[in-house]
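Incident log, entry 3
Record: Cytochrome P450 (417 residues)
Problem: checksum mismatch between cached and fresh output.
Input:
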Amino acid sequence: MDTSPVTPHRMDPAGGCPHADNQRLLARGAVATVVLPGEVEGAVVLGHEALKEFLAHPDVAKGAQHFTELREGRIAAGWPLMTFATVQGMTTADGDDHRRLRSLVSKAFTVRRVEQLRPRIEELTSSLLDGLHAAAEGGGGVADLREHFALPLPMGVIGELLGVGAEHRDRLHHLTNQVVATDIGPEQAVAANRELVAVLGAVAAARAEDPGDDLTSALIAARDEDGDRLSQQELIGTLVLMIIAGHETTLNLITNAVRALCGHRDQLESVLKGEAGWGDVVEETLRWNAPVSYFPFRYPVRDLTVDGTVVPRGTPVLAGYSAAGRDRAAHGPDADRFDVTRPGRPGAARHLSLGHGAHYCLGAPLARMEATIALERLFTRFPDLDLAVSEADLVQQTSFVGNSVQVLPVRPGTSRL
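Fresh output:
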């Protein structure tokens, strides 16, 4: 193994397309040292097998008490990644606390409960497609697919699931977008987090006053029945995580899938002919252009050797999902190629884009259902839908956490009802 010193990779707070950096870093190895915003030293695990091992390793924790620099008071309050480290919920809990918090939420995401949401998702999808068509007619044949379709679908579903009124949803998307952003200043970061907590606090108070058949009401009932099961901070933290994970990931997934199909018309034609399924499109998009690129944070509880690289105890580590999805060692020499037949191939490596191990994404079945229904209905109604600008002209998100574009102008073409 080459033991010569390697200059740490400096994470770009402005984000951008991750794949060029991923390829360069993977050429060095499955693990890379990085410099996070604020000159914080960290690491990223990029290789598929190394990441799979790391995500399930018993000596890797999620709790912020294991983050050395944070524990020692060397991280500024307005650090743009602070929420990922300190929010109190499933993603920052370990052991019994993690199992306790996950069990309170998991009942809303069983296969049966998710399947019960199908008619509502189909109804909302049809309504949004009407809106996309109307927006294009009023915009010279062009509409932003993110604004009119890919965003309101998952936000509407998670909003109804949590009992969040429509009047809060646009603001919550704006605020969570700032939380996910990695390029905002300290004052803006602090203000966004405070307002997010305040809005969700108001939602929780409304549900406490007028409970409904929603997850927030159920969590409040669990808190009130037994204070040891859920604190107020954990309640709000859980809502923060559910809002972010419940719509940002699916929004990016739908957006990236539409981009991929528009850029690979032969693949789209195969699906429309029934030679591959819409579920295959979802899985290949998750692998090929993961909706989350580098997810914060995990911390080794001891000096840990990962694929030959020592990651010191207490280091904040990013999970490199977009890199692992194109790791040639796992997905073959054509890993950079979008291929909707790949998920059905014998021996095909399963992607890690929805996580692995104890923290595997609880909402994965819902995200898959939403994306599958969305793509099938979209391209069945608008089979000639195409991008209104070139892929090169699309502007990436200002985050190295989320992986997608800011807007997606499309020409839906003729509607086939």
